[in-house]
Amino acid sequence: MPGRHFLHVPGPTNVPDRILNAMHRPMEDHRSPVFPQLVLPLFDGLKKLFKTTTGQAFIFPATGTGSWEAVLTNTLSLGDTVLASRYGQFSHLWIDLATRHGLNVVVQEEPWGTGASPEHIHAALEADRDHTIRAVMVVQNETATGVTSDVAAVRRAIDAAKHPALLFVDGVSSIGSIDFRMDEWGVDGAITGSQKALMLPAGLGISCFSQKALDAGHGARRNNPLRRVFFDIDDMQKANKDGYFPYTPSLPLLYGLRESLAMLEEEGLENVFARHRFLASGVRAAVLEGWALKLCPQEPKWYSDTVSAVMVPEGFNGADVISRAFKRYNLALGAGLSQMAGKLFRIGHLGDLNELMCLAAITGSEMAMRDVGIKVEPGSGAAAAEEVYRNAEAAATQKAA
Description:
The chain is an alpha/beta fold. It has helices at about 15-25, 35-50, 65-75, 90-100, 120-125, 150-160, 210-220, 235-240, 250-265, 270-290, 320-330, 355-370, 380-400; strands spanning about 5-10, 55-60, 80-85, 105-110, 135-140, 140, 145-150, 165-170, 190-195, 205-210, 295, 305-310, 330-335, 345-350. The chain has 2 domains: about 20-265, Type I PLP-dependent aspartate aminotransferase-like (Major domain) (Aspartate Aminotransferase, domain 2, 3-Layer(aba) Sandwich), CATH 3.40.640.10; about 270-400, Aspartate Aminotransferase, domain 1 (Alpha-Beta Complex). Helix 4 (about 90-100) links the parallel strand 3 (about 80-85) and strand 4 (about 105-110). Helix 12 (about 355-370) packs antiparallel against helix 13 (about 380-400). Residues about 395-400 have low confidence and may be disordered.
């Protein structure tokens, strides 16, 4: 049927026309004398995004997976021990990557539907009296389950144990949409990608290193280093300081990143976070109050503001809902992954979107569920979300008056 496609997976997200227009440029010489005028301000903009004054950002022509690799291989040595919580598909994949690089990963298994446990992390670090654990790995927003972990609480747990471990955080589906404070929370390696809150196509793996991580990396790279070439930040630092890259960058994506950072700054990061929280509250109302279904997170404290993982009733397959939504209503929803395969479908609500876009995703999901036999009241999801969205506007109007 004619009309637009509705993209509501938790990444890639919609690319605004303003960013598409910014990327629509002829190719140019990435070693020209004027190229640094594009590149150098990007690093300043990324520091604002990560909320750091002392960290150093790096832009790789890659994805978040590449940034995972960059953070680990530039700060740790072969055989080092790291502590990682596993509570979803993406924390699992990061652990797998670390293991394949030759790191000794101590895995803390947490129930899927929960997040990183500061208490368990504290206990493990307190027991590590010889300080063999070099880093703690946490996924801030686990999109497979719609769970957001408390990074600040993890930092407090590390500090309470008086442990020198580095703190590495995957913020691929959170940075730029959920509050993240690199300096305040003592994050040493932060990771994101272009295709989520930055509203770009996939293709940029962005990481930010604290000075502590950079210092640790100097020692690690001299002592039994993890192998790397493409992701070597020594090469990056030498070229980046003058506004260049050690190899050919993605020119359109750099122009798109400049526009994306400008858009986020114009809206204001705190307003961006509030918008995502507001839109997510409407989606959650649709699921819990309208459809009377459950979300994957086991408690409200775990709820994500960028993706809602909707549990389907016993006897139904979430994949059927996803297939019906796509084929009949031109709506793309996220699938259940690994342990959650078939048990849920995911509604992504991050990036460039507003209330009506969320309502379209809710209505399309509702029709698809009814088509496959899931009994939900017609119009109930949209009605519940509308009340959230309309009442917020009314409350704002009253307050202004």
